[in-house]
Fold this sequence. Notes:
This protein is α/β, with parallel strands linked by helices. Helix content is 53%, strand content 12%.
Amino acid sequence: MSLFKKIFSSQKKEALDKGLEKTKTGFFSKLSKAVAGKSKVDDEVLDNLEEVLVSSDVGVDTTLKIIDRIEARVSKDKYMGTDELNTILREEIAGLLSETHVGEEAEFSVPPDKKPYVIMVVGVNGVGKTTTIGKLAHQFKNQGLKVVLGAADTFRAAAIDQLQIWADRVDVPIVKQKMGSDPASVAFDTLSSALTQDADVVIIDTAGRLHNKVNLMNELTKIKRVMQKVVADTPNDVLLVLDGSTGQNAFEQAKQFTKATEVTSLAVTKLDGTAKGGVVIGISDQFQIPVKYIGVGEGIDDLQVFNKHEFVDSFFSATD
């Protein structure tokens, strides 16, 4: 590894550690209370641990899965000290994430045989969708890839303006129409433009409305159908952006969007401002959809490719 890559990798890890600080501080202060005065993992410790995990937004179903796995280990080993609990928790959480995240990408990259690689971005307003698109465009451009943005959230003038600001900031082309235009028409124009420009990556923004799931489903289906007239088998990735700071509300949004369309990957934003980072574990496990990106800060480089090993390491680093 070159010196630059080592420095960059170290900066990335520091940003991740810092981004998860509130989550791990909250989690471990609760955990230390849960095992206070106990030397052995017994039913009471497990009940307390269950409470800690649920209150850390890991989610009830995922929490029960973790507790079941630890119970199985306790019953097999006959005795387990509370001092071993952190290590066991770390192993079980890493194990859960490994079931969803197979063959993770090391960096921001797209398959070379898919050109242009089309990412359709979905998610409700206010979760950091447009910011995520801008930061993604920045990262892909840094990899030497040619990126085109499509402003298909035509229901809000602010969404089009915001995406234009990011396009200018990152210096990538954007395709847009006026507010109220047909989103599918914008997607069609974006892909046509991308082919003309020999672009590597196309990122399409879509409207973030959940109040009428039927309309949302119809709209997303139409956008896909129209894009396929230009480039077959697109989009290559349907990326759902969720705000990590909303905890259980993020679960609900994931549930609604996965019903409305086929979601292939997740981005969890705003982890730096919250103690609810455990939501990444629960959402990944419950929906069996890989978390591809996480937002750990407001800076343009603070969107990271999710790495399960680094995430678990940062999550538990408070105990090392």
